[in-house]
Amino acid sequence: MPQGSFEFSRLRIFVFRRASPFVSGLLSGKRLFLAALVAFLLAGSGPVLAETDETTLFMNGYQAHLQGENDKAIATLNEVIKKYPKGTMTDLALYWLGKAYVKAGRPQEAIQVFQTLKTKHPKSAMVPLASEQLTSLEKEQVSALPPSQRPSADKSPEGVAPQTRPVPGRKVEPEKPAPPPSAVSKKGKKEPERVAKAPVKPKPAKPRKEEPSKEEKERAAGEHRRKAIESYEKIVQAAPGSPEAARARKRLAELGVREKPPAPAKPAVTARKEPSLHAPQPGESVFLVVERVAGVEIGGAPPGLTSIPGETVTIPFDVANKGNGDDAFVLTSTLPPAYQAAFFHDAAGTGQVRAGEPSVTETPRLAMGRRTRFLLRARLPIELLDGARQAFEIKASSKADPTVSQAAPVALTASAPSLRGVFALDRKTVKPGEAVSYTLTVQNAGSANSRLARVVVSYPGSLSLASATPPAASADPLTQMARWDLDRLAPRDRKALRLDFRVREDALADQDLVVRAVLQSAQGEPAVSVVSAAARVESVAGVRVAGIDAPRTVFPRETIFIPFTLKNTGNGPDKFSVRARGDAGPVSVYEDKNRDGVRQPDEPAVETTRTLNPQEEISLLASLTVPAEEPDARRQAIRVVAGSERTRSATAEAARLIVVSRPIVTIATQMASKEGVPGKVFSYQLVCTNTGTSPARRVTISESLPPELEFVDSQPRPGRVDGRRLAWEIADLGSGQKEVLTVGVRVKSGIPAGTAVRKATSVRYTDLRDQVYE
Fold first, then answer.
1. Which residues contact 699 (CB under 8 A, 6 or more apart)?
2. Strand order in the sheet with 450-458
3. What pLDDT, on the 0 to 100 scale, is given for residue 163?
4. Best CA proximity match to 341, nearest among 297, 381, 298
5. Contacts of residue 97, Cβ cutoff 8 Å, sequence gap at least 6
6. Is-cis flag, bond preceding 526, omega within 30?
7. What is the pLDDT at residue 36?
8. Which residue of 20, 118, 132, 493 has the smallest Cβ count within 10 Å?
């Protein structure tokens, strides 16, 4: 039997001598250990102690040691020794703390712990085991020394008792591995003998303690009896039908205690039933009992698989029970959570997961040598790049002994498309209004087909998409974007997309025209951005001068301001020279800063504009005064000419037509006969006509009669009569309008025949701007 199993079998007896109530309720994989402990409890005559926190803490450290968690075992057992330096489990805690130090590779600390056990607990049943461990550790240390430093054969190492020579005629029996339960119960007799046999250093005799009084002995015996009765009753109530309960009832009867009625049963959690391992019945001739050994084997798992990101892959494998008893195995994998790994039982061996089949986390209970098939289903994260490799393990751990496990290494490799793109440009410099072409070549550099890939191209607002080859699936001139959908692109395959643009007229000088593309794969690959080379916009000068198209009516002697606008239509900043001329005289140009059409005192004359940005516009006023003698209805053109200072050839001109308008009032005298008879009355007419293109206002007609004539009457009556002077006033006389005045006069008597009579007629009027004409 291995030494670990031998020590474990010893612990089965020693720990239950101190903690039987705790173990009576413990469910673990070491059923044989528990059965032996309970059996010894019922058969022995020693005291049975109640369950304590010390026992619980010790068992936690001991279980951690069995499961290989050495750091946890060391911390827990040290806590037992610190909290309970004189407790009932201190010697056991010291021994298993030393074992944990040995297993953790810390031999010096283990030696100190074993020596502490021998020093502070010389009567403990664990001292012989500690001595064996000390001997083994010191031998290992001696063997590690150089030959010159090793002690001689006749000198025992420190801490190890020297070998004694056999006495002639006396048979030396080998030391037994562990004391029987009855020997342990008789602690006063057997343990001193075993301690004497153990190879320990002689210790100085301790002073004898005073014998307790008779009353103290009776009190201790009563307490001893009470605790024993409570322990036996707990065993009977916990497992009334077990052999241990029968022995407990027998002990209670011997102590003269009647059995209590069983407590009402409480609902309990049903644990999986393990096959029981029984110790040999008394009287049986048994050489040994085979210990249970767990074993597992994983096979059939492929070393590597390749799949597309976003798809599910199934990995088959089988699990075999290589132990010497029925066992089940916990299935785990080291795949990251993003892979959504799950196990399924492939009982039919189809290699496929059936619809609706639930996942499992452990195998069914397998008989010794039985093998069964399983599937690990995982989904590759969609964001994996081509060639990404994830190594992991499929692990099966025994439920009977969690320290027994086996792992199968597997690797998953992603096979994904990898889109790449590059732009080609047909020219490096362009001017507004010219054409330029960009060609995008898309390539699949991955190891899998690219399905439903999308190409989105965005271009600057200075470009206008004229055509695309092949035609785009969608194009939006407002957002300056075009989209293509590529159904399939095989590995190493290429696809060319040509885009023909026209540069807008308002494209700024020195601007870089860059086209961008985004390649999007449906397989989850991160979007790839592609940027083209830049086409530089050349500087172009331009100017535009504009005025109102409709002619403007002006009046003589009027000063007018005619509005014009000047705009920089080039694609860069520029200054412009301004000149103006007219047919009727000089013309001045002013900047209309507030754009009200009227020159303000602070608005200067302009010969050269300030620097104007592209598409910036200013307002101008062309000013001139119409000559007073300018004839009616004469047309004149006012011209404004602007030229770029950056490019002399860039000029612009605009003209505004003006028309001179003025009233022209004429008076004509009409009469039936030009011969007058003295003393008789005759009449004549004054016809007033406006032949001008503008209305006449406040028209005053004055008539001066000669001395030979005498005013009689008129129609209409004159507004004023001053002797021989008559005056009529007409408020408005429109263009082409007539007014007729009839005047009656008498030729005075005594006028000689043949006398020529002459009268004088005059007219005075104003135009719409109150300018006076005579």
1. 665, 688, 690, 729, 730, 731, 732, 733, 739, 763, 764, 765
2. 474-476, 481-489, 450-458, 516-520, 528-531
3. 42
4. 381
5. 61, 73, 74, 77, 78, 81, 113
6. no
7. 38
8. 493
Could you tell me which residues come within 8 angstroms of residue 297 by beta carbon, excluding any fewer than 6 positions away?
A: 319, 320, 322, 406
Question: Quick one: average pLDDT of 42-66?
Answer: 66
In sequence order, the 6+-apart residues with CB closer than 8 A to the CB of 565 are 545, 546, 547, 617, 618, 619, 620
Mean pLDDT over the full length of the chain: 80
b/e code 32-70 from CB counts within 10 Å (16+ = b): bbbbbbbbbbbbbebebbebbebbebbbbbbbbbbeebb
Q: Is the pLDDT of residue 581 over 80?
A: yes
Q: Which amino acid is at 703?
A: E
Q: Residue 134 carries which DSSP code?
A: H
Q: Spell out the domains of the chain, with CATH numbers in brackets.
A: 296-414 (2.60.40.10), 427-537 (2.60.40.10), 543-660 (2.60.40.10), 665-773 (2.60.40.740)
**Each residue of 617-648: pLDDT tens digit?**
999 999 888 888 888 888 888 899 999 998 88
Q: Hey, is 417 helix, strand or coil?
A: coil
- CA 686, CA 139: separation in Å to the nearest integer? 161
Q: What mean pLDDT is predicted for residues 646-657?
A: 89
250 pLDDT band, cuts 50/70/90, is confident
Which of 346, 283, 277, 291 has its CA nearest to residue 316? 346
Query: Which residue reads 């009516």 in tokens?
Result: 553
What is residue 339's predicted lDDT score, i.e. its pLDDT?
95
Backbone angles phi, psi at 325, to 5 degrees: -160, 165
Distance, CA of 460 to CA of 503 (rounded, Å): 10
Q: Residue 672 in contact with residue 685, Cβ under 8 Å?
A: no
Alpha-carbon distance of 414 to 308, in angstroms, equals 6
Give the total residue count for the chain.
Answer: 774
One-letter amino acid of 730: I
Can you state the angle between helices 243-254 and 31-43, rounded to 10 degrees? 20
Which of 125, 102, 107 lies closest to 10, judged by CA? 125
pLDDT of residue 676: 76
Question: Residue 569 corresponds to which tokens in the numbers above?
Answer: 């239509």
The CA distance from 486 to 522, in Å, is: 10
Token pair 């057997």: residue? 190
Asked whether residue 654 carries a pLDDT value surpassing 70, the answer given is yes
Beta bridge partners of 34: none
In angstroms, the CA 691 to CA 668 distance is 13
Instruction: State the Cα–Cα distance between residues 97 and 133, nearest whole angstrom.
Output: 12
Residue with tokens 């009355």: 681
Question: Percent of the chain beyond pLDDT 70?
Answer: 79
Using CA atoms, how far apart are residues 87 and 207, in angstroms rounded to an integer? 22
Q: What is the pLDDT of residue 413?
A: 94
Residues 437 and 532: their CA atoms lie apart, in Å, by 11
The mean per-residue pLDDT over the stretch 415-432 comes to 92
H or E element in which residue 245 lies: helix 243-254
Question: Does residue 28 surpass a pLDDT of 50?
Answer: no
**Res. 25: pLDDT tops 70:** no
Kindly report the backbone phi and psi dihedral angles of residue 243, in degrees, each rounded to the nearest multiple of 5, phi listed first: -60, -35
- Tell which residue, 66, 63, 113, 65, has the closest CA to residue 90: 113
Instruction: Tell me if the bond preceding 716 is cis, omega within 30° of 0.
Output: yes
The backbone torsions φ and ψ at residue 761, rounded to the nearest 5 degrees and listed phi first, read -125, 135
Percentage of the chain modeled with pLDDT above 90: 38
Which residue is associated with the tokens 């026992």? 55
Residue 379 has pLDDT above 90, yes or no: yes
Residue owning tokens 């050839």: 649
The DSSP letter of residue 673 is -
Q: Which of 424, 556, 563, 546 is nearest to 496 (CA)?
A: 424
pLDDT band at 299 (very low <50, low <70, confident <90, very high): very high
